[in-house]
Structures are given as C-alpha cells and as structure tokens.
Amino acid sequence: MALRVASIAATIAALRANDIAITQGPVSFGESGQVSIFVRNPDRNVIELRGREQGVMQGVTRYVP
User: Fold this and answer.
1) What is the per-residue pLDDT across 1-60, written as a single tens digit (0 to 9) for each?
2) Distance (Å, whole) CA 58 – CA 52
3) Which of 3, 17, 53, 63 could hold 27 in an S-S bridge, CB 3.0 to 4.6 Å?
4) How far is CA 36 from the centre of its chain?
5) Taking the CB of residue 56, how many other CB atoms lie within 10 A of it?
6) CA distance 57 to 41
7) Closest CA to 48 of 65, 25, 32
8) How many CA atoms within 13 Å lie on the side-chain side of 42?
9) CA nearest 60: which of 8, 6, 5?
C-alpha cells in the first residue's frame, strides 16, 4: 500500500517520535522529486509513504528493490 504525505521530513519526525521503525528510506525513484520511506504494520505488511516535490533532502538514496 502506498500513501501520499505532505512532507517526508515531518513524517519521519512523527514516526521517530512514536517509535515506529523506518524499514527503508528515504529513497528517490528518479529525478521527479518524489521521495519515499517504507514502514511495516504490525502484520508485517509494507506501507510506502511518498512525498511529492520534497526538494533537497539529506540522506536520500536511489531506490533499490
């Protein structure tokens, strides 16, 4: 499942504040400016949280499946 978020930086801060582990990311999928992070729910399903046009962010790597 993928969900769009307004801000990857704010989403990362909220996840960390609630002790929710980021399993991968932040990653980019090209030059589109979209950055994603991945988490797992309690049933271990992957959830992608994607922000559009995030600008320059530190620590972003290219997505590798």
Assistant:
1) 899 999 999 999 999 999 999 999 899 877 776 899 999 999 999 999 998 766 666 777
2) 16
3) 63
4) 3
5) 6
6) 25
7) 25
8) 0
9) 8
* CA-wise closest residue to 36 among 45, 27, 44: 27
Environment class of 57 (CB within 10 Å of its CB; exposed 0-12, middle 13-18, buried 19+): middle
**20-54: buried (b, 16+ CB within 10 Å) or exposed (e) per residue?**
eeeebbbbbeeeeebbbbbbeeeeeeeebbbbeeb
Q: What is the pTM of this model?
A: 0.82
3-state SS, the chain, equals CEEEECCHHHHHHHHHHCCCCCCEEEEECCCCCCEEEEEECCCCCEEEEEECCCCCCCCCEECCC
